């Protein structure tokens, strides 16, 4: 069952410069993807590719000058983009929940953590008594593996370690039984053993509760290990999408190949070396392929919009050469 | 968490600070010129008379020796005698400090009462109409000189409109002041249960307090807005939004998290605006610290200047200790050992 369907999403930053000229940074350019119940989608790409912005667009958390200029985001068939704040507040924190990348900064420093979790329960059920909300919070803390949750509920956020804070945020995200969980770099800033614990926990919860999940990360190792499907983002576009096995085993977009080739675990010098430089200027994107300036295969036709070539029923790549290129990575 | 130990430690730190401030002003006033002996004896005195007066006042001793005499008196509550009005400095200070502080506290209090909600709302609706109007008026509040504001208010509300009593002191001349307890006529009137005193003191307070509040509110609005904007852009507010918390709940989270820096700011404002209060109290002829200090400086009345500076320093120090204490009590992260 499709939970989330993002179609043709365009999110732009629209500002005016000193001369009152409108400046548009095209941060998301026709992003489309789906998340089904029970699966984990990994959204990878470098900083500035638009991964977090995709999450913020879905959650209705964009602030000026960022705005959605085109496209639709359907959650269980309902278009979220058109929703007013009140309607959106029915869904977020309840049916859709998000876990952020800076767990300690994501907790209100002046509220004990039990109360913070209970607050989210009460926001979605005004009839809920304080006692019931508190016991729900303690239960939720227990489910995410916080030992002695009754006592921990009385702790202040500054007393928690990063890993513990992330567990608290996951407990908060789960309190209303969401059907979709968005985790935006959930393990950034945590040390490696804690990273694995948190990701194992997320995966177990997704399976146990049959949720859909989207994990945003720049860590290919995380995607390879935890995600059923992978979407690779570059300069506001999804350049390749498919089953994780297929994308990693047979990457077709030159950017995906470069990304896989640059992970320290499998530095493969037989792959095409990435051309240096950074992502393109979002204020003046190339007309065709966004990767044209860095791509070793760039040719004249790359100045026109590349097709989203279907390599199998589930595997797509946004490249003129995706079909003809034989994979060499294994 | 031991509040009294925290307080004791803070106050102990204050002692060397006050000694230093006293030393500094002592030397400055002495080195700044002005011959007290000549001032006291008048223009026609002989050199022998001058020497006699100097010896009597201890001015023939070395500066350090003089300082020692002063400070050993000061710790016993003896701040010397004014050479101008011959009254003990401490008596004058006790009488006049509450006058200035009354204006300061009511004014800054009213300014905070208006400034904090306005600043919070401006941050929430930033760049919208409300925010733009608020920014205009707070700029106005910043730009108006105190004495000008005070005089214009007297002109408009007393002279033209006749809404307020004449700006002549803190109570109508027709009313005998209540027995002095706090030296605030408003409070003393309440204590003595004399309603005509309370009424008169209150109507005398209105104009200068509003002037004070206008001056105080401008920076409070600006700071509150900046602090709340900062909180609004924090990760935890974003988490709250992502959790579907209502606007009202989020607004209260923002307000609570803005409170510590706002309270700290208002503390610094209390000490910074004592000059403004002095000017207003001067304009409205209240006869408080401002008038006292200014006269003392002009007349080279050393002990009075010393006492004036010491009183202001002590006030600032007390304000900061109280602010620290409030912050420690409301802030779970605060560390009492500091």
Task: Tell me about this structure.
The complex is a heterodimer of chains A (330) and B (338). Chain A is an alpha/beta fold. In chain A, 45% of the residues are buried. In chain A, strand 11 (308-310) and strand 12 form a beta hairpin. Chain A has helices at residues 51-59, 85-91, 113-123, 130-143, 149-152, 162-174, 192-209, 220-226, 244-249, 254-261; strands spanning 2-16, 22-36, 40-44, 66-75, 78-79, 96-99, 180-184, 212-217, 229-234, 237-243, 308-310, 316-318. Chain A is 29% helix and 25% strand. In chain A, helix 4 crosses helix 6. Chain A has 2 domains: 2-227, Rossmann fold (3-Layer(aba) Sandwich); 242-330, no CATH class. Chain A has 10 helices and 12 strands. With 338 residues, chain B is mostly helical. Chain B has a domain at 89-288: MetI-like fold. Helices cover 75% and strands 0% of the residues of chain B. Chain B is globular, with a radius of gyration of 24 Å. At the A-B interface, helix 2, helix 3 and helix 6 of A face helix 10 and helix 11 of B.
List keywords for this structure.
heterodimer, A: 330 residues, alpha/beta, Rossmann fold, 2 domains, four-stranded antiparallel beta sheet, 10 helices, globular, B: 338 residues, mainly alpha, MetI-like fold, 14 helices, 0% strand
Radius of gyration of chain A: 21 Å
CATH topology of the largest domain in chain A: Rossmann fold
CATH top level of the largest domain in chain A is Alpha Beta
What is the N-to-C order of secondary-structure elements of chain A (H for helix, E for strand)?
Answer: EEEHEEHEHHHHEHEHEEHHEE
Kindly identify the CATH topology of the domain at 89-288 in chain B.
Answer: MetI-like fold
What count of structural domains of chain A? 2
Helix content of chain A: 25-40%
Task: Calculate Rg of chain B over CA atoms.
Answer: 24 Å
How many β-strand runs of chain A? 12
H/E series of chain B: HHHHHHHHHHHHHH
What can be said about the biggest beta sheet of chain A? 8 strands, mixed
Biggest interface pair, residues each? A-B, 32 and 21 residues
The total of helices of chain B stands at 14
Output the number of helix runs of chain A: 10
% residues in beta strands of chain B: under 5%
| CATH level-two architecture of the largest domain in chain A | 3-Layer(aba) Sandwich
DSSP strand count of chain B: 0
The mean pLDDT of chain B is 85
Low-confidence blocks of residues of chain A: 325-330
Give the oligomeric state of the chains in this entry, treating copies of one chain as homo and distinct chains as hetero.
Answer: heterodimer
Instruction: Name the structural class of chain A.
Output: alpha/beta
């Amino acid at each position: 069952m499709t939970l989330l369907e993002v179609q043709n999403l365009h999110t732009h930053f629209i500002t005016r410069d000193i001369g009152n000229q409108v400046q548009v940074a095209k941060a998301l350019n026709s992003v489309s993807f789906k998340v089904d119940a029970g699966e984990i989608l990994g959204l990878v790409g470098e900083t500035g590719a638009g991964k977090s912005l995709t999450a913020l667009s879905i959650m209705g958390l964009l602030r000026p000058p960022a705005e959605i200029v085109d496209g639709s985001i359907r959650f269980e068939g309902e278009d979220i983009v058109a929703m007013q704040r009140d309607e959106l507040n029915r869904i977020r924190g309840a049916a859709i929940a998000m876990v952020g990348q800076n767990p300690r900064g994501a907790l209100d420093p002046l509220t004990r953590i039990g109360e913070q979790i209970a607050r989210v329960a009460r926001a979605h059920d005004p009839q809920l008594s304080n006692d019931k909300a508190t016991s729900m919070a303690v239960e939720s803390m227990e489910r995410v593996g916080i030992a002695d949750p009754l006592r921990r509920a009385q702790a202040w956020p500054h007393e928690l370690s990063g890993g513990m804070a992330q567990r608290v945020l996951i407990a908060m995200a789960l309190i209303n039984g969401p059907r979709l969980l968005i985790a935006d770099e959930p393990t950034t800033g945590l040390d490696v053993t804690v990273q694995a614990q948190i990701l194992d926990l997320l995966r177990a919860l997704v399976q146990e509760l049959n949720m859909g999940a989207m994990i945003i990360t720049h860590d290919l190792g995380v995607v390879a290990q935890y995600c059923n499907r992978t979407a690779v983002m570059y300069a506001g576009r999804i350049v390749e999408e498919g089953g994780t096995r297929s994308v990693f085993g047979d990457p077709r977009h030159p950017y995906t190949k470069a990304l896989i080739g640059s992970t320290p675990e499998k530095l493969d010098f037989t792959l095409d070396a990435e051309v240096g430089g950074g992502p393109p200027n979002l204020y003046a994107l190339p007309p065709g392929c966004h990767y044209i300036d860095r791509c070793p295969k760039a040719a004249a036709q790359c100045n026109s919009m590349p097709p989203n070539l279907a390599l199998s029923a589930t595997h797509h790549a946004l490249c003129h050469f995706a079909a003809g290129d034989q994979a060499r990575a294994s | 968490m031991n509040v009294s130990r925290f307080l004791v430690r803070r106050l102990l730190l204050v002692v060397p600070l006050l000694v230093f401030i006293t030393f500094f002003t002592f030397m400055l006033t002495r080195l700044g010129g002005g011959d007290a002996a000549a001032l006291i004896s008048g223009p026609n005195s002989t050199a022998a008379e001058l020497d006699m007066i100097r010896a009597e006042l201890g001015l023939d001793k070395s500066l350090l020796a003089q300082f020692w005499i002063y400070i050993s008196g000061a710790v016993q509550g003896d701040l010397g005698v004014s050479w101008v009005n011959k009254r003990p400095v401490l008596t004058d200070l006790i009488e006049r400090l509450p006058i200035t502080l009354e204006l300061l506290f009511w004014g800054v209090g009213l300014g905070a009462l208006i400034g904090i909600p306005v600043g919070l709302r401006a941050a929430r609706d930033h760049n919208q109409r409300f925010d733009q109007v608020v920014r205009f008026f707070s700029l106005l509040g910043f730009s108006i000189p105190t004495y000008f504001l005070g005089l214009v208010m007297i002109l408009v509300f007393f002279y033209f409109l006749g809404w307020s009593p004449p700006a002549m002191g803190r109570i109508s001349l027709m009313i005998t002041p209540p027995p002095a307890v706090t030296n605030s006529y408003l409070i003393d009137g309440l204590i003595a249960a004399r309603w005509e005193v309370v009424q008169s003191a209150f109507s005398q307070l209105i104009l200068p307090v509003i002037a004070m509040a206008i001056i105080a509110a401008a920076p409070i609005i600006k700071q509150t807005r900046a602090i709340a904007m900062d909180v609004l852009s924090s990760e935890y507010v974003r988490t709250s939004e992502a959790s579907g918390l209502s606007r009202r709940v989020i607004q209260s989270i923002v307000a609570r998290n803005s409170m510590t820096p706002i309270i700290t700011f208002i503390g610094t404002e209390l000490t910074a605006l004592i000059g403004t209060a002095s000017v207003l109290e001067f304009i409205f002829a209240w006869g408080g610290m401002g008038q006292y200090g200014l006269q003392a400086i002009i007349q080279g009345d050393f002990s009075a200047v010393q006492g004036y500076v010491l009183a202001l320093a002590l006030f600032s120090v007390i304000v900061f200790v109280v602010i620290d204490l409030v912050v420690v009590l409301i802030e779970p992260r605060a560390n009492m050992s500091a």
